[in-house]
Amino acid sequence: MPGSIALEARGLYKSFGGVLAIADVSFSVREGSLTAAIGPNGAGKTTLFNLVTNLYPPDAGSASCFGIDLTGHPPDTVAALGLVRTFQTARAFPGMTVLENVLVGAHLRVRARAWQQALWLRAVRDEERAIRRQAEALLEVVGLADRRDDSAISLPLGAQKLLEVIRALMARPRLLLLDEPAAGLNDVETAELARLLLAVRAAGVTLMVVEHNMSLVMGIADDIIVLDLGRVIATGPPAAVQVNPRVIEAYLGREAETA
Question: What is the pTM of this model?
Answer without folding.
Answer: 0.85
